[in-house]
Amino acid sequence: MASGTIERSWFTPIDAYCERLDPSFWSEPVNALTNGAFLAAGIAAYLMLRDRRDWPALLLVGLTFLIGAGSFLFHTFANRWSALADVVPIGIFILVYFFLAMRRFLGLSLVGAVVATIGFQGGSVLITWIWRNAIVTPLGFDPINGSAGYLPALIAIVGVGLAAWPRDPATARRLCLAGGVFMLSLACRALDARICGAVPLGSHFLWHLLNGTLLFLLMRAAIIRGRGTTVGSGRAVKA
Length: 239
Prior knowledge:
Rhopdopsin 7-helix transmembrane proteins; mainly alpha
């Protein structure tokens, strides 16, 4: 009885986007195929490395491929287990990138970067909780269509960009550009559920295309910064 309940829960269909009209595998072809943007981003970032052993950047490239694969699974199988395959790589990418940003862009020590990353994760949970209880519950609906979990990442990208400006304006501009792209992608994700009547395809596919661009811009900023610096002892030193 228990195993049957578990099976039903993990394989329960999820209909979350305009394009999906039934539970079949290929009911979201555009949403599924536009995950190619993540593969393109990963390939482009890998080519930038040019055989350099930048292990943190290579890890981000690998996670980008996993993001594309996980999102493809979700937009084809569209159930609880594939939803997990979708969100877990994204969450790991965010934490890895934040840690790398603390080290590579702001020059924090290893301990400082770990503490900052833990604090960021705690703040992310708090922001999501506040949004759900202070905004969604009183209104009776979510104005940003379940995107609250991405708000801390947006704040972090812009915040780190501004913090890096005095010491590295070029990196700061790259991060702020990425933040601008992220704002557009979040808007497309939020709009999807509200435009189904007028635009049956929805706008979620734009979230994929813009997020592929976003991840490339973030990896590009980290790779370029890594070419000119090595980070150690709590500060960035010219290589």
